[in-house]
Amino acid sequence: MAVLEIDGDAALVSPVRQQRRVGALFVCAVAWIALIGLAAIFADLLPIASPTDMDLLAKRSAPGAAHLLGADHLGRDELSRLIYGGRVSLTVGLLAPVIGVLIGGSLGMVAGYFRGRFETLAVGGVDVLLAFPPLVFVLAVTAYLGQSVLNITLVIGVLGIPAFTRVSRAVTLTLSEREFVTAARALGATHARILIRELLPNVALPLLAFFLLAVAVTIVVEGALSFLGLGVPPPAPSWGSMIAEGRENLDIAPWLAFLPAGFMFLTVLSFNIVGDTLRALTDPRPGTL
Amino acid sequence: MTAPLLSVEGVSVDLPTPRGALRAVDNVDLSLAPGGTLGVVGESGCGKTMLSRAILQLLPKRAKLSGRVMFGGRDLAALSPESLRKLRGPELAVVFQDPMTSLNPVLTIGTQLVETLQAHLGMDGGAATRRGIELLAAVGIPAPDQRMRQYPHQLSGGMRQRVAIAIALSCEPKLLIADEPTTALDVTIQAQILELIVELQREFSAAVILITHDLGVVAETARRVIVMYAGRKVEEADVGELFARPLHPYTVGLLASIPRLDLLRGEVRNATDRLQEIPGMVPPLFALPDGCAFAPRCNRADDLCRRERPVYEQKREAHWAACWHSDG
Q1: Could you give the ipTM of this predicted complex?
Q2: Model confidence, pTM
Q3: Residue A20 counted as domain residue
Protein backbone atom coordinates (compact mmCIF):
# COMPACT_ATOMS: atom_id res chain seq x y z
CA MET A 1 0.00 0.00 0.00
CA ALA A 2 0.99 3.57 -0.50
CA VAL A 3 2.88 5.22 2.31
CA LEU A 4 3.06 8.97 2.30
CA GLU A 5 5.18 9.78 5.32
CA ILE A 6 7.95 11.91 3.98
CA ASP A 7 10.36 11.70 6.86
CA GLY A 8 10.35 7.92 6.64
CA ASP A 9 13.21 7.59 4.20
CA ALA A 10 15.02 10.67 5.39
CA ALA A 11 15.21 9.22 8.87
CA LEU A 12 16.67 6.02 7.50
CA VAL A 13 19.49 7.76 5.71
CA SER A 14 20.71 9.46 8.84
CA PRO A 15 22.05 7.01 11.42
CA VAL A 16 19.77 5.96 14.21
CA ARG A 17 21.91 7.52 16.90
CA GLN A 18 23.09 11.00 16.15
CA GLN A 19 26.54 11.89 17.39
CA ARG A 20 26.18 14.16 20.33
CA ARG A 21 29.25 16.13 21.39
CA VAL A 22 30.75 15.68 24.80
CA GLY A 23 32.77 18.62 26.08
CA ALA A 24 36.39 18.74 27.13
CA LEU A 25 35.14 19.24 30.69
CA PHE A 26 33.48 15.81 30.58
CA VAL A 27 36.71 14.20 29.37
CA CYS A 28 38.68 15.87 32.17
CA ALA A 29 36.13 14.74 34.76
CA VAL A 30 36.20 11.13 33.56
CA ALA A 31 40.01 11.22 33.47
CA TRP A 32 40.17 12.49 37.05
CA ILE A 33 37.72 9.86 38.32
CA ALA A 34 39.63 7.15 36.45
CA LEU A 35 42.95 8.36 37.86
CA ILE A 36 41.72 8.50 41.46
CA GLY A 37 39.79 5.23 41.07
CA LEU A 38 42.74 3.29 39.60
CA ALA A 39 45.16 4.71 42.17
CA ALA A 40 42.79 3.72 44.98
CA ILE A 41 42.26 0.19 43.59
CA PHE A 42 45.95 -0.49 42.92
CA ALA A 43 47.30 1.45 45.91
CA ASP A 44 49.05 -1.64 47.25
CA LEU A 45 50.97 -2.14 44.00
CA LEU A 46 52.07 1.48 43.56
CA PRO A 47 55.67 2.40 44.41
CA ILE A 48 54.64 4.65 47.28
CA ALA A 49 55.46 4.73 50.95
CA SER A 50 53.13 3.15 53.48
CA PRO A 51 50.47 5.65 54.61
CA THR A 52 51.15 4.89 58.27
CA ASP A 53 54.99 4.74 58.35
CA MET A 54 56.32 7.71 60.28
CA ASP A 55 59.46 9.48 59.09
CA LEU A 56 59.79 11.89 62.01
CA LEU A 57 62.79 13.67 60.50
CA ALA A 58 60.60 14.71 57.55
CA LYS A 59 57.82 16.14 59.73
CA ARG A 60 55.80 18.75 57.80
CA SER A 61 58.38 18.74 55.02
CA ALA A 62 57.43 20.59 51.86
CA PRO A 63 56.85 18.64 48.62
CA GLY A 64 60.16 17.40 47.32
CA ALA A 65 62.14 14.41 46.13
CA ALA A 66 61.77 12.29 49.28
CA HIS A 67 58.04 12.94 49.73
CA LEU A 68 56.45 14.03 46.45
CA LEU A 69 53.64 15.94 48.12
CA GLY A 70 55.37 16.47 51.43
CA ALA A 71 54.74 14.76 54.75
CA ASP A 72 52.28 15.41 57.55
CA HIS A 73 52.87 16.39 61.18
CA LEU A 74 53.93 12.82 62.03
CA GLY A 75 56.14 12.52 58.96
CA ARG A 76 53.75 10.24 57.02
CA ASP A 77 53.88 10.47 53.24
CA GLU A 78 51.09 12.82 52.09
CA LEU A 79 50.68 11.36 48.56
CA SER A 80 50.31 7.86 49.92
CA ARG A 81 47.80 9.04 52.51
CA LEU A 82 45.81 10.85 49.82
CA ILE A 83 45.61 7.69 47.72
CA TYR A 84 44.67 5.43 50.61
CA GLY A 85 42.25 8.09 51.84
CA GLY A 86 40.67 8.09 48.38
CA ARG A 87 40.03 4.38 48.86
CA VAL A 88 37.80 5.11 51.85
CA SER A 89 36.07 8.08 50.22
CA LEU A 90 35.31 6.23 46.99
CA THR A 91 34.24 3.00 48.68
CA VAL A 92 31.80 4.79 50.94
CA GLY A 93 30.83 7.28 48.22
CA LEU A 94 29.93 4.59 45.69
CA LEU A 95 28.52 1.87 47.93
CA ALA A 96 26.29 3.95 50.21
CA PRO A 97 24.18 5.33 47.30
CA VAL A 98 23.88 1.78 45.93
CA ILE A 99 22.03 0.86 49.11
CA GLY A 100 19.83 3.92 48.66
CA VAL A 101 19.10 3.33 45.00
CA LEU A 102 18.30 -0.35 45.44
CA ILE A 103 16.07 -0.12 48.51
CA GLY A 104 14.73 3.40 48.06
CA GLY A 105 14.29 3.08 44.31
CA SER A 106 12.28 -0.14 44.44
CA LEU A 107 10.27 1.02 47.45
CA GLY A 108 9.35 4.22 45.62
CA MET A 109 8.39 2.41 42.40
CA VAL A 110 6.16 -0.09 44.16
CA ALA A 111 4.56 2.69 46.23
CA GLY A 112 4.00 4.90 43.19
CA TYR A 113 2.59 2.09 41.05
CA PHE A 114 0.26 0.30 43.47
CA ARG A 115 -0.70 3.35 45.56
CA GLY A 116 -3.11 2.57 48.39
CA ARG A 117 -2.13 1.40 51.83
CA PHE A 118 1.39 0.33 50.89
CA GLU A 119 2.14 3.83 49.61
CA THR A 120 0.89 5.39 52.85
CA LEU A 121 3.11 3.04 54.85
CA ALA A 122 6.18 3.54 52.69
CA VAL A 123 5.88 7.32 52.57
CA GLY A 124 5.20 7.43 56.30
CA GLY A 125 8.23 5.28 57.09
CA VAL A 126 10.42 7.39 54.85
CA ASP A 127 9.18 10.57 56.54
CA VAL A 128 10.08 9.13 59.94
CA LEU A 129 13.57 8.33 58.68
CA LEU A 130 13.88 11.86 57.29
CA ALA A 131 12.82 13.42 60.58
CA PHE A 132 15.42 11.41 62.54
CA PRO A 133 18.54 13.57 63.22
CA PRO A 134 21.27 11.97 61.06
CA LEU A 135 24.21 12.84 63.32
CA VAL A 136 22.55 11.19 66.33
CA PHE A 137 21.95 8.11 64.18
CA VAL A 138 25.60 8.03 63.08
CA LEU A 139 26.81 8.51 66.66
CA ALA A 140 24.56 5.75 67.93
CA VAL A 141 25.62 3.25 65.28
CA THR A 142 29.35 3.98 65.53
CA ALA A 143 29.18 3.91 69.32
CA TYR A 144 27.52 0.48 69.42
CA LEU A 145 28.88 -1.21 66.31
CA GLY A 146 32.26 0.52 66.06
CA GLN A 147 33.80 2.79 63.46
CA SER A 148 34.52 0.88 60.27
CA VAL A 149 34.13 1.49 56.57
CA LEU A 150 31.29 -1.04 56.46
CA ASN A 151 29.32 0.60 59.27
CA ILE A 152 29.76 4.09 57.87
CA THR A 153 28.67 2.90 54.43
CA LEU A 154 25.57 1.25 55.88
CA VAL A 155 24.64 4.31 57.95
CA ILE A 156 25.02 6.78 55.11
CA GLY A 157 23.29 4.34 52.78
CA VAL A 158 20.25 3.98 55.01
CA LEU A 159 20.11 7.74 55.49
CA GLY A 160 19.99 8.11 51.70
CA ILE A 161 16.96 5.82 51.22
CA PRO A 162 14.27 8.51 51.74
CA ALA A 163 15.60 10.75 48.98
CA PHE A 164 15.73 7.88 46.48
CA THR A 165 12.26 6.70 47.51
CA ARG A 166 10.82 10.14 46.89
CA VAL A 167 12.46 10.58 43.51
CA SER A 168 11.42 7.17 42.22
CA ARG A 169 7.89 7.43 43.64
CA ALA A 170 7.36 10.85 42.07
CA VAL A 171 8.58 9.67 38.66
CA THR A 172 6.56 6.45 38.86
CA LEU A 173 3.39 8.31 39.85
CA THR A 174 3.39 10.44 36.71
CA LEU A 175 4.48 7.55 34.49
CA SER A 176 1.74 5.22 35.78
CA GLU A 177 -0.85 7.67 34.47
CA ARG A 178 0.61 7.49 30.99
CA GLU A 179 -1.22 5.54 28.35
CA PHE A 180 1.58 3.09 27.61
CA VAL A 181 1.03 1.56 31.04
CA THR A 182 -2.66 1.10 30.28
CA ALA A 183 -1.64 -0.24 26.87
CA ALA A 184 0.64 -2.79 28.51
CA ARG A 185 -2.18 -3.85 30.82
CA ALA A 186 -4.51 -4.12 27.85
CA LEU A 187 -2.00 -6.52 26.31
CA GLY A 188 -2.13 -8.70 29.39
CA ALA A 189 1.12 -7.71 31.08
CA THR A 190 1.51 -8.72 34.74
CA HIS A 191 2.21 -6.12 37.41
CA ALA A 192 5.78 -7.38 37.75
CA ARG A 193 6.28 -7.06 34.00
CA ILE A 194 4.89 -3.54 33.90
CA LEU A 195 7.11 -2.51 36.81
CA ILE A 196 10.29 -4.06 35.45
CA ARG A 197 9.96 -3.79 31.69
CA GLU A 198 7.77 -0.72 31.20
CA LEU A 199 8.43 1.53 34.18
CA LEU A 200 11.98 0.69 35.29
CA PRO A 201 13.68 1.82 32.05
CA ASN A 202 11.88 5.15 32.41
CA VAL A 203 12.66 5.54 36.11
CA ALA A 204 16.28 4.41 35.73
CA LEU A 205 17.42 7.57 33.95
CA PRO A 206 16.38 10.12 36.59
CA LEU A 207 17.57 7.68 39.27
CA LEU A 208 20.99 7.37 37.64
CA ALA A 209 21.40 11.14 37.52
CA PHE A 210 20.34 11.32 41.15
CA PHE A 211 22.70 8.46 42.01
CA LEU A 212 25.75 10.34 40.72
CA LEU A 213 24.66 13.42 42.63
CA ALA A 214 24.34 11.23 45.72
CA VAL A 215 27.88 9.90 45.19
CA ALA A 216 29.17 13.46 45.28
CA VAL A 217 27.15 14.32 48.37
CA THR A 218 28.20 11.10 50.13
CA ILE A 219 31.89 11.82 49.59
CA VAL A 220 31.38 15.19 51.26
CA VAL A 221 29.36 13.61 54.09
CA GLU A 222 32.02 10.97 54.69
CA GLY A 223 34.61 13.75 54.75
CA ALA A 224 32.58 15.71 57.27
CA LEU A 225 32.18 12.64 59.50
CA SER A 226 35.91 11.94 59.38
CA PHE A 227 36.61 15.60 60.06
CA LEU A 228 34.49 15.25 63.21
CA GLY A 229 36.30 12.05 64.15
CA LEU A 230 33.32 9.78 63.39
CA GLY A 231 34.84 8.23 60.29
CA VAL A 232 37.39 5.45 59.91
CA PRO A 233 39.56 5.32 63.05
CA PRO A 234 43.18 6.54 62.89
CA PRO A 235 45.85 5.84 61.82
CA ALA A 236 43.99 4.85 58.64
CA PRO A 237 43.79 7.96 56.44
CA SER A 238 40.70 9.57 55.03
CA TRP A 239 40.39 12.90 53.24
CA GLY A 240 38.16 14.32 55.98
CA SER A 241 40.48 13.38 58.84
CA MET A 242 43.48 14.62 56.86
CA ILE A 243 41.82 18.03 56.51
CA ALA A 244 41.14 17.98 60.26
CA GLU A 245 44.77 17.15 61.05
CA GLY A 246 46.09 19.65 58.51
CA ARG A 247 44.00 22.38 60.08
CA GLU A 248 46.34 22.48 63.08
CA ASN A 249 49.33 23.19 60.81
CA LEU A 250 47.73 25.71 58.49
CA ASP A 251 50.29 28.41 59.34
CA ILE A 252 53.43 26.28 58.74
CA ALA A 253 52.28 23.67 56.21
CA PRO A 254 49.05 24.85 54.53
CA TRP A 255 49.22 22.15 51.81
CA LEU A 256 48.44 19.49 54.42
CA ALA A 257 44.86 20.79 54.62
CA PHE A 258 44.51 22.13 51.09
CA LEU A 259 45.66 19.02 49.24
CA PRO A 260 42.96 16.65 50.60
CA ALA A 261 40.40 19.45 50.33
CA GLY A 262 41.39 19.97 46.69
CA PHE A 263 41.20 16.22 45.95
CA MET A 264 37.74 16.05 47.45
CA PHE A 265 36.61 19.15 45.56
CA LEU A 266 37.82 17.83 42.21
CA THR A 267 36.30 14.38 42.78
CA VAL A 268 32.90 15.76 43.78
CA LEU A 269 32.91 18.19 40.87
CA SER A 270 33.84 15.40 38.45
CA PHE A 271 30.98 13.18 39.59
CA ASN A 272 28.54 16.05 39.16
CA ILE A 273 29.79 16.83 35.65
CA VAL A 274 29.65 13.16 34.62
CA GLY A 275 26.15 12.82 36.09
CA ASP A 276 24.84 15.81 34.17
CA THR A 277 26.43 14.80 30.90
CA LEU A 278 25.33 11.18 31.13
CA ARG A 279 21.76 12.23 31.77
CA ALA A 280 21.80 14.46 28.70
CA LEU A 281 23.44 11.73 26.61
CA THR A 282 21.21 8.82 27.53
CA ASP A 283 17.93 10.70 27.35
CA PRO A 284 16.30 9.34 24.19
CA ARG A 285 13.79 12.14 24.15
CA PRO A 286 15.73 15.21 23.13
CA GLY A 287 13.65 18.26 23.87
CA THR A 288 10.25 16.61 23.77
CA LEU A 289 8.38 14.47 26.20
CA MET B 1 -27.55 -16.00 13.07
CA THR B 2 -24.26 -16.84 14.72
CA ALA B 3 -23.73 -16.39 18.43
CA PRO B 4 -22.32 -12.96 19.17
CA LEU B 5 -18.62 -12.72 20.08
CA LEU B 6 -19.31 -9.86 22.43
CA SER B 7 -22.55 -8.96 24.07
CA VAL B 8 -22.79 -6.12 26.51
CA GLU B 9 -25.91 -6.35 28.63
CA GLY B 10 -27.15 -3.40 30.65
CA VAL B 11 -23.72 -2.05 31.43
CA SER B 12 -23.48 1.05 33.60
CA VAL B 13 -20.35 2.72 34.95
CA ASP B 14 -20.53 4.91 38.04
CA LEU B 15 -17.65 7.20 38.92
CA PRO B 16 -17.42 8.76 42.37
CA THR B 17 -16.55 12.47 42.17
CA PRO B 18 -16.37 15.21 44.81
CA ARG B 19 -19.73 16.45 43.49
CA GLY B 20 -21.40 13.09 43.83
CA ALA B 21 -21.44 9.87 41.83
CA LEU B 22 -21.84 10.33 38.14
CA ARG B 23 -23.03 7.79 35.67
CA ALA B 24 -20.58 7.82 32.77
CA VAL B 25 -22.26 4.92 30.98
CA ASP B 26 -25.96 4.32 31.53
CA ASN B 27 -27.53 0.97 30.80
CA VAL B 28 -25.91 0.27 27.44
CA ASP B 29 -26.52 -2.93 25.46
CA LEU B 30 -24.67 -3.93 22.38
CA SER B 31 -23.67 -7.06 20.57
CA LEU B 32 -21.06 -7.82 17.99
CA ALA B 33 -20.70 -10.91 15.80
CA PRO B 34 -17.28 -12.48 15.18
CA GLY B 35 -15.51 -10.46 12.50
CA GLY B 36 -18.11 -7.68 12.60
CA THR B 37 -17.51 -3.96 12.82
CA LEU B 38 -19.35 -1.65 15.14
CA GLY B 39 -18.99 2.11 15.26
CA VAL B 40 -19.64 4.01 18.46
CA VAL B 41 -20.13 7.71 17.86
CA GLY B 42 -20.54 10.67 20.16
CA GLU B 43 -19.05 13.93 21.37
CA SER B 44 -16.32 14.23 23.99
CA GLY B 45 -17.61 13.24 27.41
CA CYS B 46 -20.51 11.14 26.17
CA GLY B 47 -19.13 7.96 27.72
CA LYS B 48 -17.76 6.17 24.69
CA THR B 49 -14.24 5.78 26.10
CA MET B 50 -15.64 4.61 29.45
CA LEU B 51 -17.71 2.06 27.56
CA SER B 52 -14.58 0.74 25.87
CA ARG B 53 -12.75 0.63 29.20
CA ALA B 54 -15.69 -1.24 30.69
CA ILE B 55 -15.49 -3.87 27.95
CA LEU B 56 -11.73 -4.20 28.46
CA GLN B 57 -12.12 -4.18 32.27
CA LEU B 58 -9.61 -1.32 32.43
CA LEU B 59 -11.78 1.10 34.38
CA PRO B 60 -10.23 3.35 37.02
CA LYS B 61 -10.05 1.61 40.39
CA ARG B 62 -12.85 3.63 41.96
CA ALA B 63 -15.28 3.14 39.11
CA LYS B 64 -18.20 0.77 39.67
CA LEU B 65 -19.37 -1.43 36.84
CA SER B 66 -22.78 -3.06 36.74
CA GLY B 67 -24.28 -5.27 34.08
CA ARG B 68 -22.62 -8.06 32.15
CA VAL B 69 -19.90 -8.07 29.51
CA MET B 70 -20.19 -11.46 27.84
CA PHE B 71 -17.21 -12.29 25.66
CA GLY B 72 -17.04 -15.71 24.03
CA GLY B 73 -19.58 -17.01 26.55
CA ARG B 74 -17.79 -15.70 29.64
CA ASP B 75 -18.64 -12.69 31.78
CA LEU B 76 -15.49 -10.56 31.76
CA ALA B 77 -16.64 -8.61 34.82
CA ALA B 78 -16.72 -11.82 36.86
CA LEU B 79 -13.37 -13.23 35.74
CA SER B 80 -10.38 -13.41 38.06
CA PRO B 81 -7.61 -10.89 37.35
CA GLU B 82 -5.35 -13.73 36.24
CA SER B 83 -7.71 -15.27 33.69
CA LEU B 84 -8.59 -11.79 32.47
CA ARG B 85 -4.89 -11.08 31.98
CA LYS B 86 -4.58 -14.18 29.83
CA LEU B 87 -7.46 -13.04 27.61
CA ARG B 88 -5.84 -9.69 26.94
CA GLY B 89 -3.57 -9.85 23.96
CA PRO B 90 -4.63 -13.11 22.31
CA GLU B 91 -8.38 -12.36 22.57
CA LEU B 92 -8.85 -8.69 23.38
CA ALA B 93 -6.67 -5.83 22.17
CA VAL B 94 -6.90 -2.09 21.98
CA VAL B 95 -5.46 0.77 19.96
CA PHE B 96 -5.43 4.07 21.79
CA GLN B 97 -6.03 7.58 20.55
CA ASP B 98 -2.59 9.07 20.97
CA PRO B 99 0.35 7.02 19.71
CA MET B 100 2.65 9.60 21.37
CA THR B 101 1.74 8.27 24.79
CA SER B 102 0.64 4.70 24.13
CA LEU B 103 4.17 3.55 23.25
CA ASN B 104 6.90 3.37 25.86
CA PRO B 105 9.30 6.24 25.06
CA VAL B 106 12.48 4.53 26.25
CA LEU B 107 12.07 1.12 24.62
CA THR B 108 12.71 0.45 20.94
CA ILE B 109 9.83 -0.49 18.66
CA GLY B 110 11.37 -3.93 18.32
CA THR B 111 11.56 -4.53 22.06
CA GLN B 112 7.94 -3.58 22.58
CA LEU B 113 6.74 -5.77 19.73
CA VAL B 114 8.99 -8.74 20.42
CA GLU B 115 8.26 -8.87 24.14
CA THR B 116 4.53 -9.02 23.54
CA LEU B 117 5.03 -11.93 21.16
CA GLN B 118 7.31 -13.73 23.58
CA ALA B 119 5.02 -13.20 26.54
CA HIS B 120 1.85 -14.45 24.87
CA LEU B 121 2.88 -16.84 22.15
CA GLY B 122 5.97 -18.22 23.88
CA MET B 123 8.15 -17.56 20.82
CA ASP B 124 11.92 -17.58 21.17
CA GLY B 125 13.87 -14.40 20.45
CA GLY B 126 14.71 -15.12 16.83
CA ALA B 127 11.22 -16.19 15.80
CA ALA B 128 9.66 -13.26 17.61
CA THR B 129 11.99 -10.83 15.88
CA ARG B 130 11.16 -12.30 12.46
CA ARG B 131 7.44 -12.15 13.23
CA GLY B 132 7.84 -8.58 14.49
CA ILE B 133 9.42 -7.53 11.19
CA GLU B 134 6.60 -9.27 9.31
CA LEU B 135 4.01 -7.42 11.37
CA LEU B 136 5.67 -4.05 10.78
CA ALA B 137 5.70 -4.81 7.07
CA ALA B 138 2.03 -5.82 7.27
CA VAL B 139 1.07 -2.44 8.73
CA GLY B 140 2.88 -0.73 5.86
CA ILE B 141 6.11 0.41 7.49
CA PRO B 142 9.00 0.62 5.03
CA ALA B 143 12.38 -0.87 6.01
CA PRO B 144 10.84 -2.65 9.02
CA ASP B 145 14.08 -4.32 10.10
CA GLN B 146 15.64 -0.90 10.64
CA ARG B 147 12.54 0.49 12.30
CA MET B 148 12.74 -2.29 14.88
CA ARG B 149 15.82 -0.63 16.35
CA GLN B 150 14.29 2.84 16.55
CA TYR B 151 12.59 4.61 19.42
CA PRO B 152 9.02 5.94 19.20
CA HIS B 153 10.16 9.57 19.03
CA GLN B 154 12.06 8.82 15.83
CA LEU B 155 8.82 7.95 14.05
CA SER B 156 6.07 10.22 12.76
CA GLY B 157 2.61 10.14 14.30
CA GLY B 158 1.17 7.98 11.54
CA MET B 159 4.09 5.55 11.81
CA ARG B 160 3.64 5.32 15.55
CA GLN B 161 -0.03 4.53 15.18
CA ARG B 162 0.87 1.81 12.67
CA VAL B 163 3.28 0.38 15.25
CA ALA B 164 0.57 0.52 17.92
CA ILE B 165 -1.75 -1.38 15.56
CA ALA B 166 0.98 -3.92 14.85
CA ILE B 167 1.45 -4.51 18.59
CA ALA B 168 -2.31 -4.78 19.16
CA LEU B 169 -2.69 -7.29 16.34
CA SER B 170 0.50 -9.22 17.14
CA CYS B 171 -1.38 -11.95 19.02
CA GLU B 172 -4.24 -12.05 16.49
CA PRO B 173 -7.00 -10.97 18.86
CA LYS B 174 -10.64 -11.85 18.24
CA LEU B 175 -11.77 -8.37 19.25
CA LEU B 176 -9.94 -5.12 18.58
CA ILE B 177 -11.16 -1.94 20.22
CA ALA B 178 -9.92 1.16 18.42
CA ASP B 179 -10.45 4.15 20.68
CA GLU B 180 -10.35 7.22 18.43
CA PRO B 181 -7.43 5.74 16.50
CA THR B 182 -7.23 8.59 14.01
CA THR B 183 -8.06 11.61 16.16
CA ALA B 184 -4.46 12.56 16.90
CA LEU B 185 -3.38 12.18 13.28
CA ASP B 186 -3.28 14.35 10.18
CA VAL B 187 -6.31 14.06 7.94
CA THR B 188 -4.20 12.59 5.13
CA ILE B 189 -2.90 9.88 7.43
CA GLN B 190 -6.36 9.19 8.92
CA ALA B 191 -7.65 7.62 5.73
CA GLN B 192 -4.57 5.40 5.48
CA ILE B 193 -4.90 4.20 9.05
CA LEU B 194 -8.61 3.43 8.60
CA GLU B 195 -7.89 1.59 5.38
CA LEU B 196 -5.22 -0.36 7.23
CA ILE B 197 -7.57 -1.30 10.07
CA VAL B 198 -10.22 -2.55 7.63
CA GLU B 199 -7.64 -4.46 5.61
CA LEU B 200 -6.07 -6.10 8.65
CA GLN B 201 -9.46 -6.85 10.14
CA ARG B 202 -10.24 -8.92 7.07
CA GLU B 203 -6.83 -10.59 7.13
CA PHE B 204 -6.91 -11.45 10.83
CA SER B 205 -10.72 -11.92 10.87
CA ALA B 206 -11.05 -9.86 14.03
CA ALA B 207 -14.14 -8.05 15.23
CA VAL B 208 -13.62 -4.32 15.61
CA ILE B 209 -15.27 -1.71 17.79
CA LEU B 210 -14.41 1.68 16.37
CA ILE B 211 -14.91 4.53 18.78
CA THR B 212 -14.91 7.99 17.27
CA HIS B 213 -16.54 11.39 17.23
CA ASP B 214 -16.21 11.51 13.47
CA LEU B 215 -19.15 10.16 11.51
CA GLY B 216 -17.02 10.27 8.38
CA VAL B 217 -14.72 7.66 9.90
CA VAL B 218 -17.69 5.44 10.73
CA ALA B 219 -19.10 5.74 7.23
CA GLU B 220 -15.90 4.35 5.77
CA THR B 221 -15.41 1.44 8.10
CA ALA B 222 -18.33 0.31 10.24
CA ARG B 223 -21.37 -1.68 9.29
CA ARG B 224 -23.50 -0.98 12.34
CA VAL B 225 -23.42 2.26 14.30
CA ILE B 226 -24.36 3.23 17.84
CA VAL B 227 -24.78 6.91 18.65
CA MET B 228 -24.22 7.81 22.29
CA TYR B 229 -25.17 10.92 24.17
CA ALA B 230 -24.52 11.67 27.85
CA GLY B 231 -23.72 8.04 28.62
CA ARG B 232 -26.79 6.57 26.91
CA LYS B 233 -27.48 5.06 23.56
CA VAL B 234 -29.71 7.39 21.58
CA GLU B 235 -29.74 5.65 18.22
CA GLU B 236 -28.58 2.45 16.59
CA ALA B 237 -28.84 1.41 12.96
CA ASP B 238 -26.92 0.04 9.99
CA VAL B 239 -24.59 2.63 8.60
CA GLY B 240 -26.44 3.27 5.32
CA GLU B 241 -29.78 3.58 7.07
CA LEU B 242 -28.35 5.92 9.69
CA PHE B 243 -26.87 8.28 7.13
CA ALA B 244 -29.93 8.19 4.87
CA ARG B 245 -32.65 8.46 7.47
CA PRO B 246 -31.34 9.55 10.86
CA LEU B 247 -34.08 9.57 13.52
CA HIS B 248 -32.63 11.24 16.57
CA PRO B 249 -32.14 15.03 16.36
CA TYR B 250 -28.65 14.55 17.81
CA THR B 251 -27.64 12.26 14.94
CA VAL B 252 -29.17 14.73 12.50
CA GLY B 253 -27.07 17.45 14.13
CA LEU B 254 -23.88 15.37 13.94
CA LEU B 255 -24.49 14.62 10.28
CA ALA B 256 -25.11 18.27 9.52
CA SER B 257 -21.87 19.26 11.19
CA ILE B 258 -19.65 17.24 8.86
CA PRO B 259 -17.86 19.76 6.62
CA ARG B 260 -18.77 19.27 2.96
CA LEU B 261 -16.55 20.28 0.13
CA ASP B 262 -19.31 21.79 -2.02
CA LEU B 263 -20.25 24.07 0.86
CA LEU B 264 -16.64 25.08 1.42
CA ARG B 265 -16.38 26.04 -2.24
CA GLY B 266 -19.19 28.49 -1.64
CA GLU B 267 -21.81 26.66 -3.71
CA VAL B 268 -24.50 27.52 -1.21
CA ARG B 269 -27.99 27.35 -2.58
CA ASN B 270 -30.06 28.29 0.43
CA ALA B 271 -29.62 29.36 4.02
CA THR B 272 -29.77 25.86 5.51
CA ASP B 273 -26.84 24.76 3.36
CA ARG B 274 -24.21 26.37 5.54
CA LEU B 275 -22.24 24.15 7.94
CA GLN B 276 -24.46 23.49 10.92
CA GLU B 277 -23.34 23.09 14.48
CA ILE B 278 -25.22 21.77 17.50
CA PRO B 279 -25.71 24.64 19.93
CA GLY B 280 -24.59 24.22 23.52
CA MET B 281 -22.52 21.50 25.15
CA VAL B 282 -22.96 18.01 26.59
CA PRO B 283 -24.57 18.60 30.00
CA PRO B 284 -22.41 17.72 33.03
CA LEU B 285 -23.13 14.09 33.88
CA PHE B 286 -23.77 14.81 37.56
CA ALA B 287 -26.52 17.27 36.67
CA LEU B 288 -28.51 15.56 33.92
CA PRO B 289 -31.99 16.92 33.26
CA ASP B 290 -34.97 14.75 34.25
CA GLY B 291 -36.23 14.28 30.74
CA CYS B 292 -34.27 13.74 27.55
CA ALA B 293 -30.60 14.63 28.10
CA PHE B 294 -30.48 16.28 24.68
CA ALA B 295 -33.60 18.42 25.22
CA PRO B 296 -31.73 21.64 26.19
CA ARG B 297 -29.93 21.61 22.83
CA CYS B 298 -32.74 20.25 20.69
CA ASN B 299 -34.86 22.48 18.46
CA ARG B 300 -37.73 20.01 18.52
CA ALA B 301 -37.90 19.69 22.30
CA ASP B 302 -41.24 20.30 24.00
CA ASP B 303 -42.62 19.85 27.51
CA LEU B 304 -42.80 16.08 27.18
CA CYS B 305 -39.08 15.93 26.31
CA ARG B 306 -38.17 18.04 29.32
CA ARG B 307 -40.41 16.05 31.64
CA GLU B 308 -39.90 12.44 30.70
CA ARG B 309 -36.97 10.48 29.42
CA PRO B 310 -37.77 9.06 25.95
CA VAL B 311 -38.02 5.29 25.63
CA TYR B 312 -35.32 3.57 23.62
CA GLU B 313 -37.34 1.55 21.15
CA GLN B 314 -37.37 0.07 17.70
CA LYS B 315 -38.67 2.65 15.26
CA ARG B 316 -38.01 0.87 12.00
CA GLU B 317 -36.57 -2.41 10.82
CA ALA B 318 -33.22 -2.79 12.70
CA HIS B 319 -33.27 0.88 13.57
CA TRP B 320 -33.60 1.93 17.21
CA ALA B 321 -33.76 5.36 18.73
CA ALA B 322 -34.69 7.19 21.92
CA CYS B 323 -36.75 10.21 20.94
CA TRP B 324 -40.38 11.22 21.44
CA HIS B 325 -40.54 12.91 18.05
CA SER B 326 -39.14 10.39 15.67
CA ASP B 327 -41.68 7.83 14.59
CA GLY B 328 -40.65 5.99 11.47
Answers
A1: 0.78
A2: 0.77
A3: no
